[in-house]
Amino acid sequence: MEDFEDSPALDAGLLSGAQAVEHYEISRYGTLIAWAEQLGMKQAVQLLEQTLEEEKKTDAALNKLAEAAINRKTA
Ligand SMILES: [Fe+2]
């Protein structure tokens, strides 16, 4: 990180790492929801769906940040 201090590459790297985490979480929550549905765990399904929506919102926010960074760089 020190090597890329004050570089757009650092922001790009951090954003891509954060999005990778969000995508992993989205896939895991999708699986957990399917399992909870199969087990008839309605309350767990509701909670997991809420969390999944939060993860998707975070991913969308990271997308906006990445797009803003690209637009800033090309302006
Ligand atoms: Fe997350």
Outline:
With 75 residues, the chain is mainly α.
What is the H/E string? Answer: HH
Number of strands: 0
List ligands, each type once. fe (ii) ion
CATH-level-4 superfamily name? Ferritin, core subunit, four-helix bundle
CATH architectural category: Up-down Bundle
**Helix residue percentage:** over 70%
The chain-level mean pLDDT equals 92
Number of helices in the DSSP assignment: 2
Share of residues in strands: under 5%
Rounded to the nearest angstrom, the radius of gyration is 17 Å
Give the termini separation.
25 Å
Q: Can you tell me the CATH topology?
A: Ferritin
Number of domains: 1
- Main beta-sheet annotation: none
The residue ranges in which pLDDT falls below 50 over 5 or more consecutive positions are: none
> Which secondary-structure class do the elements indicate?
mainly alpha
Shape descriptor reads elongated
CATH class: Mainly Alpha
